[in-house]
Amino acid sequence: MKPVLILQLRPEDDASDGEYRAFLEKGGMDEGHTRRLRLEAGPLPEGFRLEDYSAVIVGGGPGCVSDDPATRPREEARAEAEILSLLPDIVARDMPFLGCCAGIGILAHFLGGEVSKSRYAEPVSAVLGEVTSEGRTDPLLAGLPEVFDVFVGHKEAVQSLPDGAAHLMSSATCPFQMIRVGQHVYATQFHPEADGQVFAERIRIYRGHGYFAPEEADALTKDCLAANVTEPERILRRFVETFVRSGTRSPA
Prior knowledge:
This protein has helices at residues 13-27, 74-93, 102-110, 196-205, 217-226, 232-245; strands at residues 4-8, 34-38, 55-58, 97-100, 115-116, 122-131, 147-154, 157-158, 165-171, 178-181, 185-188. By secondary structure, it is α/β, with parallel strands linked by helices.
């Protein structure tokens, strides 16, 4: 089995390490079956080839694709550009791909969709996600409840469905919670790897990053730990089991 490529964008060591552990645990993977690249720490290695991997997972991060690259930390903008450079090949191959939070903005931006801070930002919280009629027949969502809680926290959002994308999940506060391109390229606005403890740790780490007022941190932590968020990790596990372990590929 070829390894899963996990691309990360978080410059904080504890946040990056926690995210990686969450991907392993919730996805049912171990380190030996993954390759982890922290793109904010350096470019793709020499000789890198997508065909050496079974799937690609992109984690979240503090950057926004809608911000002017000239105004952003150089490492942040470069890391995002590295992912964008891979998407033409990923989409053309219909390679299994799962972009989480920042990943949906990067994918939608690549597809020519509007991504901005004008509407649909969501504070750090658990919100009720709803599976669309198209989503009910998707292999990652079929048989799951039609509504369930998901963890979110983002400053920008997809403003309209990109051409050619399937709309799989929505919420009252952000209409584009999950999309798919082709049969195997997915992205979520919510965090399928996160449980309450993971989000509590991120609240501690990102206390001063503008996602929430610092004085709200204790209340947000309490709310996240009390939230009943169980279904999103099933999406991540299904992604791995369907497209990596079984090698199942739907007809393109």
